[in-house]
């Protein structure tokens, strides 16, 4: 679903940090995000964001320096991950302002 706006500038991805927790929580509280989450409930950002694992990365998507959403990448077959397995973006921008 789109809002009818077209992005004309590049989307930049940067690593999410614990400083982004208030933003991520605010996005999780939006009605459209709650509806899309189904019965899963809010994501446990406080636990997962600071947890550093080599097979996953959380990314904040920005346009013109404004955060518009979050995406994440994981290695396929993460339980058998090695440094030679590239991370693959597996989620579109799923939370947005």
Supply the key terms.
97 residues; alpha+beta; 5-stranded antiparallel beta sheet
* Topology order in helix (H) and strand (E) letters: EHHHEEEE
Strand percent estimate = 25-35%
Seen as an oligomer or otherwise, the chain set is single chain
Overall body shape? globular
Sheet having the most strands: 5 strands, antiparallel
- The SS-based structural class is alpha+beta
Unreliably modeled segments: none
Rg, Cα atoms, Å: 14 Å
The termini sit apart by 14 Å
> What number of structural domains do the residues give?
1
Helical residue percent band:
10-25%
Structure characterization notes:
It is built from three helices and five strands, in the order E-H-H-H-E-E-E-E. With 97 residues, the chain is α+β, with helices and mostly antiparallel strands. It has one domain. Strands 1, 2, 3, 4 and 5 form a five-stranded antiparallel sheet that branches. A hairpin with a 2-residue loop joins strand 2 and strand 3. The longest helix has 8 residues. The protein is globular, with a radius of gyration of 14 Å.
Write a brief caption for the model.
The protein has 97 residues and is α+β, with helices and mostly antiparallel strands. The protein has helices at residues 21-28, 31-37, 45-48; strands at residues 11-15, 56-63, 66-75, 87-89, 95-96.
Give the topology:
Blueprint: E1 11-15, H1 21-28, H2 31-37, H3 45-48, E2 56-63, E3 66-75, E4 87-89, E5 95-96
